[in-house]
């Protein structure tokens, strides 16, 4: 053996005798023989097939340390070891990080030197594929070599040390028996104590269930800890005594009890087989009990086999047999899990699809249906990944698998709980306090209209993030490295800024809409006019369009899209629309100024475009009116050149009353004043503003003298007040004998009058008889020409 080979062997012996036992004991990893250690270091010499005992290794190490030259060489070799490992790791990449030998590292170094730093995707994919295949071949070789220990045991090449086996069995049975008895007693007391509290979960919500489940899980952990402490106490007071303490085998047995107990507590947290009221996942009782028992068996078989069975085989038989037991336990556990998944693939898929049908989100239903179709393939992949990790890195596989599995369970549970909370918010909606709903009745509707869409996007982000974290945990990709890389920071910054812009824009829009609602809410001492309502509705629509356009443009700008062409295109499109729709633009602009100038309000009686009627609806481009006959007219503002509003501030009823020529004018004026006084004392008195305005004689007609008076009324009451005043005028004129004239026609005969004959009438009577007296008709147009409905 050369000096270099001897130094390497000595360094390996030092690592195997000193470092591995301490690491294995600290992490619960079973000690394996020197054959496995040689195998994991990549040595392909006869040392891999030999099984030197610890005494022989110690002897060799003592001889090396006694020789000054060998000791100096060993120290120099240990000093150079970290730098060599660092260089190999940086050169070999994933192959060296996964525990491959020196040959694989040198081959990867050659590939890296040949291809350079700028490797294409095809080259990197080829290297990764070759490294994966080499790892798989090496793992199969290690499995085949490890199982040779069972062949040696069957052939009688290695013998069982029955005395040590008997002593180990007594120690393990004693400490584990005490631990299990204390654990079962604690579970019994826990069941009795929490039985009445668990029933409260039926009447509580999700928060109460989660709280009680967390408390019971913590109590389960305490019972496991109590059993572990009792087992340690039994070990101290029996074989080892207080001075020497518990033996290594007893400590390994209790560590196996502790680790498997904690793992089973995790299973009870997920499935809750004995506490169905606290179960969070949608399992029925039979399925929860089934999976809890099967997976609990796998955990016990795997945990006790690795952390107790392997050390016992090492101590009672040989290291090579312990290595074979380690591999055999892993293979049997993997086969059992694969068979369990295969047996329940269809049943679990149907359960997932049934649960998906009860969800309100179509996206969630489609995702769960897809998961139901491929869940068993995902389970196969997980089992094979764990098996691959265990075979490729046997010494730290426990830590890697348990850490990755624990983090995966926590990640999935966290993502599920967050998604469940988001789904419940989407389904149940948002409920605001009663005073907020009273003051802002439309706020809750707006929140329940927009927030569910945002929450669905957030739920998808949570799902994607959960998947990425799981890939990060199992080493498929490095999400943390990508997030800290320049491209990741830039991408997150851009999309985060875009999301922040949209969120701020939504908050501003919501605040402005709430302010508009407050301004349109009537309360004591404040009445919302039709003009205010119309202006705020126009402002609401305009502000919504502005905020949507600005938020969209800013968001696109934040994610790196050049919005200059969009703005230019929008300008061109707006110019084309303005030329092609001039009438529409004129309608909108004219309508906006009409509203700003308060020319028209809903409920007003106006004349617009030659049409008189009551305004029923007012938009930014047209007005809808209904005339006295009930006909609806829609008048666009582009055709409006003048607006006549009959209901601004106050109104006048102008009455033109005709009297005969032989009527005393003073007497007629007094009668008109008397009619006005009677009008003031009627129910219409509250609508009259001021005194009667007597304008006097305004016209000499063919058969009457016109006297005009004017009555000032509140807006819109001039027509009803005028009709009532006409009734009082007629009543007063009849009482005073004032004649309201009417048109008269006199006929004259052109034939000379005949001599008077007997029985002939006097000339005066003839003329009277030939005179036509038409019936009296009131001069309606002279009294009132306005049109308005009665109130």
Would you give an account of this structure?
The protein has helices at 3-27, 34-40, 54-66, 68-92, 94-97, 102-115, 121-146, 148-155, 162-198, 206-237, 241-244, 248-271, 285-316, 319-357, 362-392, 397-428, 434-439, 443-473, 479-484, 486-519, 530-558, 564-580, 582-596, 665-681, 718-736, 763-770, 780-783; strands at residues 605-608, 611-618, 622-626, 632-636, 643-645, 651-659, 693-700, 705-713. With 791 residues, it is an alpha+beta fold. Among the domains are: 1-93, no CATH class; 160-316, no CATH class; 395-436 and 450-470, no CATH class; 590-645, SH3 type barrels (Roll); 651-745 and 763-783, Alpha-Beta Plaits (2-Layer Sandwich), CATH 3.30.70.100. Strands 4-3-2-1-5 form a five-stranded antiparallel β-sheet. A three-stranded antiparallel β-sheet has the order 6-8-7. A hairpin with a 5-residue loop joins strand 3 and strand 4 (632-636). Helix 8 (148-155) packs across helix 14 (319-357). The radius of gyration is 51 Å and the shape is elongated.
Give a topology summary:
Layout: H1 3-27, H2 34-40, H3 54-66, H4 68-92, H5 94-97, H6 102-115, H7 121-146, H8 148-155, H9 162-198, H10 206-237, H11 241-244, H12 248-271, H13 285-316, H14 319-357, H15 362-392, H16 397-428, H17 434-439, H18 443-473, H19 479-484, H20 486-519, H21 530-558, H22 564-580, H23 582-596, E1 605-608, E2 611-618, E3 622-626, E4 632-636, E5 643-645, E6 651-659, H24 665-681, E7 693-700, E8 705-713, H25 718-736, H26 763-770, H27 780-783
Domain Moderate conductance mechanosensitive channel YbiO-like transmembrane helix: 404-482
Domain Mechanosensitive ion channel transmembrane helices 2/3: 542-582
Signal peptide: 1-26
């Amino acid at each position: 053996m050369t000096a270099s080979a001897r130094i390497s062997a000595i360094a390996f012996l030092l690592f195997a005798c000193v470092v591995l036992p301490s690491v294995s004991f600290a992490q619960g990893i079973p000690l394996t023989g020197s054959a496995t250690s040689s195998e994991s270091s990549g040595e392909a010499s006869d040392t891999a097939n030999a099984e030197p005992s610890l005494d022989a290794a110690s002897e060799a190490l003592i001889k090396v340390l006694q020789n000054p030259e060998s000791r100096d060489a060993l120290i120099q070799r240990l000093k150079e070891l970290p730098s060599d490992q660092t260089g190999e790791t940086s050169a070999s990449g994933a192959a060296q990080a996964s525990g491959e030998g020196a040959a694989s590292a040198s081959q990867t170094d050659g590939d890296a030197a040949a291809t350079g730093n700028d490797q294409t995707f095809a080259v990197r994919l080829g290297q990764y594929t070759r490294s994966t295949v080499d790892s798989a071949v090496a793992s199969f070789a290690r499995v085949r070599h490890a199982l040779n220990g069972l062949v040696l045991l069957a052939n009688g090449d290695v013998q069982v040390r029955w005395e040590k086996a008997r002593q180990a069995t007594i120690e393990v049975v004693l400490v584990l028996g005490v631990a299990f008895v204390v654990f079962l007693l604690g579970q019994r007391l826990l069941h009795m104590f929490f039985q009445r509290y668990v029933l409260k979960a039926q009447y509580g919500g999700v928060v109460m269930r989660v709280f009680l489940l967390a408390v019971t899980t913590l109590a389960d952990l305490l019972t496991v800890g109590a059993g572990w402490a009792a087992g340690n106490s039994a070990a101290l007071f029996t074989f080892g005594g207080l001075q020497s303490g518990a033996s290594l085998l007893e400590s390994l047995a209790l560590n196996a009890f502790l680790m498997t107990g904690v793992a089973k507590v995790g299973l009870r947290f997920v499935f809750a087989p004995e506490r169905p009221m606290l179960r969070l996942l949608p399992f029925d009782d039979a399925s929860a009990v089934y999976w809890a028992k099967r997976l609990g068996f796998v955990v016990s078989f795997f945990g006790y086999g690795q952390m107790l069975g392997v050390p016992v085989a090492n101590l009672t038989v040989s290291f090579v047999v312990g290595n074979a037991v380690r591999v055999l336990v892993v293979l049997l556990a993997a086969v059992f899990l694969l068979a369990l998944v295969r047996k329940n693939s269809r049943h679990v898929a149907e359960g997932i699809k049934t649960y998906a049908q009860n969800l309100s989100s179509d996206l969630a239903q489609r995702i769960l249906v897809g998961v139901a179709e491929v869940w068993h393939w995902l389970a196969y992949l997980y089992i094979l990944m764990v098996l691959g990790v265990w075979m490729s890195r046997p010494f730290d596989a426990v830590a890697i698998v348990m850490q990755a599995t624990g983090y995966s369970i926590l990640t999935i549970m966290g993502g599920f709980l967050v998604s469940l909370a988001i789904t419940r918010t989407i389904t149940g909606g948002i409920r605001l306090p009663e005073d907020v709903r009273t003051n802002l009745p439309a706020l809750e509707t707006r929140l329940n209209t927009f927030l569910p869409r945002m929450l669905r996007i957030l739920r998808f982000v949570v799902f994607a993030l959960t998947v990425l974290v799981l890939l990060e945990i199992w080493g498929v990709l490095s999400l943390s490295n990508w997030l800290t890389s320049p491209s990741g920071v830039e991408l997150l910054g851009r999309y985060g800024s875009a999301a922040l812009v949209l969120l701020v824009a939504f908050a501003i829009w919501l605040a402005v809409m709430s302010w508009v609602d407050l301004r349109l809410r009537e309360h004591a001492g404040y009445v919302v006019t039709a003009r205010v309502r119309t202006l705020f509705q126009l402002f609401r629509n305009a502000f919504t369009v502005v905020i949507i356009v600005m938020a969209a443009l800013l968001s696109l700008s934040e994610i790196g899209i050049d919005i200059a062409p969009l703005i230019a295109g929008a300008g061109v499109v707006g110019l084309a629309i303005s030329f092609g729709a001039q009438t529409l633009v004129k309608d909108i602009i004219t309508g906006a100024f009409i509203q700003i100038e308060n020319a028209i309000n809903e409920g007003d009686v106006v004349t617009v475009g030659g049409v008189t009627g009551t305004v029923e609806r007012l938009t930014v481009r047209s007005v809808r009116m209904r005339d006295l006959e009930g006909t609806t007219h829609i008048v666009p503002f582009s055709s409006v050149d003048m607006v006549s509003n009959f209901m601004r501030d106050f109104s006048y009823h102008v009455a033109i009353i005709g009297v005969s020529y032989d009527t005393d004018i003073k007497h007629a004026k007094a009668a008109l004043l008397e009619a006005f006084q009677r009008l003031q004392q009627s129910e219409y008195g509250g609508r009259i503003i001021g005194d009667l305005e007597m304008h006097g004689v305004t016209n000499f007609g063919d058969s009457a003298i016109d006297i005009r008076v004017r009555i000032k009324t509140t807006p819109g009451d001039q027509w009803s007040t005028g009709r009532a005043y006409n009734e009082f005028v007629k009543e007063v004129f009849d009482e005073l004998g004032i004649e309201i004239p009417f048109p008269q026609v006199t006929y004259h005969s052109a034939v000379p009058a005949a001599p008077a004959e007997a029985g002939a009438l006097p000339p005066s009577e003839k003329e009277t008889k030939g005179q036509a007296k038409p019936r009296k008709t009131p001069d309606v147009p002279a009294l009132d020409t306005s049109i308005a409905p009665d109130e």
